[in-house]
Fold each of these.
Amino acid sequence: KMALNTLAKMATWNNKHLPQNVRKSIAAMHEKTNNLNSILTVAWARRIMLVLMAVGGGTGLVYFGMPLNIGNIKFNPYINTSLNALMEVPAIAAGTLLLPITDRRLLVSVSSGIYALCCIICSFVSNGWIQIVVELTGFLAVCMTFDLTYVFCLELFATEVRSVVVAMLRKAIMAGAAIAP
């Protein structure tokens, strides 16, 4: 009820009216129990959750798979591992700085595209220095996607079902990690 009032107030500030389907969707989600069924019975919530789980699975695969495959890069594995660890900090900083000024969906999509492209390029490049630069760029992008996916997930769902949604995202990420080569 409080969420509907807030949305209605925001709509009037923008000289708009809150559509009936939004009212019905929120009311339907609120009436149901606060578990996985309440997410799966509302079409838009189910669709968003499935997309988030797909993104989470792919991100988990690459996020945990890249460090496991460091030995395949023609570079010193100890230095490479250290550089990968150092890439976490700028990834978090970049994500934090970009969140307020860009669209979340665009940011997650672009960073996912960058790490996917870097993974493909890295498999075809044989020069050690080029390979390490491409791998570090991909790892920076996947770290950013990893962090942003949780933020995106938290912002999309109501407080009542948020813990279930984050748990499902975590399961998808860990499933991706489990199948990492």
Amino acid sequence: MYSFWCRIKTMANSTKEVKTRLTSISGAKKITKAMEMIAASRMRRTVERTKAARDYEISAWKLGVLLSGQVKLDPISSLRKLVFANPNNKSSILLVITGNRGLCGSFNANVVSLAMRFLEREGHENVEVVCLGKKGAELLQARGVAVSRFFQKDDNPKNSECIMSVADYLFYKMREGRAGRTWVTGSSFVSSFEQRPILKPLFPLAFDEVAKETIAEITGESEEAPELEAGKKRWYRFEPNASLILERLVLAIGESRIYQALLESAAGEQAARMLAMQAATKAAGEMYDEQLVVFNKLRQGMITQELAEISAARAAMVN
């Protein structure tokens, strides 16, 4: 009889442990499901902004290149450094845009991997790394990359202060001649199931064949560049003067390209997080089902054991 109650107690403890585990898994499943729904909602809002800004960014870029073909800039002008490439200046700035948080699969790691390929091609000593987003800075520093400047990424892409801070820093570096080119690497939002890491030129505005070759070699893709010759086919009258208009336009284009890259990255991050939480919810559901089967088997074993012991005791009493 003593051994009977010992076995019952042991099985009761086992069922209690499994039941506690079921409660924990159920709670985790609710959390991941809620995070999935939040990410999906944020992704939809960001995608709408991304599509609206994409056409503007492309049109503004082409317009800037078109007008730059009609403006005669002084060879030593600081504005010229933002428009035309300087073959003698081999230094570059790489702006790496990632998220502030994890739980989004390999989203941040893919962007950092692309940045590392760029650094290996160009040489670490020739590239100044600027990070927009906490995860990118952490992952790059973990790989031994020196991050010269870190900007806190606002979770709301509409916040213009974040974009202007980054743009002002890049403009200053280019104007002072401390960098010959400025690049941005982030994520391109293709669909909710596909986010592709990209490398794009920011400055100079009219990037040349060297930039095309760099993008093609690192990413395996090419970016279409507006032709400077298009500027000779149309003529515009500038008021008050061409240089002032082009300067303001170049700065606006730079900000719009950074804003577009930020939107694309935000949309891709939320899509990746939605998929990651969806997979986590599915895994939690499968784990819950497995533990429920274990719980039912233990409970059934307890009942069977009790019935067997009662039957044996009754038979002993009859005999």
Amino acid sequence: MFADWAPEVRYLIAQTQIAGVKPTDISDALIRSFIGWFVAKQNTVDTSAGWCNRLVGWYVKERAKGSLSADEEAPAGGDWASKGVVL
């Protein structure tokens, strides 16, 4: 990993499709956080596709932990109340 790394679009799209998330859900802030973490871990080596896989996994884990800020977190399905869903 290096500081000016950017995910290749084709690999990012493939990995997000596999994980069931949208590529647009992965914000620039999340990518910067991911890069910052792995730049510090210089012994970790991977391919471009492998880094995209790790990035999508990072997003899924952060979303599950609830540690994404409101602007990073994607809507879970739009306005479910307008579809008649009542809790």
Amino acid sequence: MAAPGSRRCPPLPGAAPRGPALTAHGAARRPPRPALRRRAHAGGPARAQPRPRPRTRNPDGDVSPWCYVAEHEDGVYWKYCEIPACQMPGNLGCYKDHGNPPPLTGASKTSNKLTIQTCISFCRSQRFKFAGMESGYACFCGNNPDYWKYGEAASTECNSVCFGDHTQPCGGDGRIILFDTLVGACGGNYSAMTSVVYSPDFPDTYATGRVCYWTIRVPGASHIHFNFTLFDIRDSADMVELLDGYTHRVLVRFNGRNRPPLSFNVSLDFVILYFFSDRINQAQGFAVLYQAIKEEPPQERPTANQTLAEVITEQANHSVSAARSSKVLYVITTSPSHPPQTVPGWTVYGLATLLILTVTAIVAKILLHITFKSHRVPASGDLRDCRQPGTSGEIWSIFYQPATSISIFKKKLKGPSQQDDRNPLVSD
């Protein structure tokens, strides 16, 4: 979340190394003194103009680099070192503010107790995405994606200390330092491929009695890589846990006695980050960078010597295998060089009619064979002897002509008075 082209501050505690205090003219060593030259300006408090000072770590354990400032009065005073490439974790950068309109056009307030987190919490409660501090006491909120429109300034131009905490930077004269309001939230839902999760109230010390959950869910990720760039939890009762998002099983637990490794992986795409603090021993907290990794399955590509026909054949074999495994009886495909053509409706009906007529002819032939076999027609001489008085023999005849209807009608035998007709079958 650092500004483009800048690097994060080293995650070491600010007191390591502490660095030597200054001495004057070989005299006994004494603490440096904070008298600063100040320049008044319109629309804001006096801006401190420190003299050149040696660069060293801050003496109070803060995560950002600081410098001692020695002047002619007793006491100790320090400000951020002039390292333009260094950015505080969660800082979006330092930007110019010409005031008409300001970079952030949402809600705003002023406070003589302003800190980074009080401004962020105020903007988050108003449902704004960005929070900005200016001149040490002014807080601005907004959703403006073009907050950079007046240009980016050097980080050293946003080093005016917050009125509520002199260890934090709160912008400068006509310079606004920006943060995402997700910083320091107690809980949240993350689905981006990479992001940073901060302890509650960050960069302030986390409050007592905190219970916070953050869900990190990136569908399709093979594993999630975690890197704790900052981990300052001193109480063994305060803890950070990673849980399986599906089973809620604790995967790993860190506290004041069990610090996390430099980096590690969790082979899941859904992880829950849990934080708990008791009622004593507050500390700076943590900042963890996560990155989800998606592994693409290997894709088989045809070799240079493999022809297109071989590729199509191989794909067809895969299709047939898949069809057999799914119990599909037929796989119908078309040639890739010829577009599919529709079959006319009359052709389908003609084929169906031909099939019906063929079946009907076979059935009729079988019936005709059975009929003639069971009712044999006698000769004309024997017919008179077999005929009983008052009755006449009858048979059924079936005539079939292809592609036409089938006619079934009854035939009668000829009487004795019709001697000239040699055919024993006459029609009604």
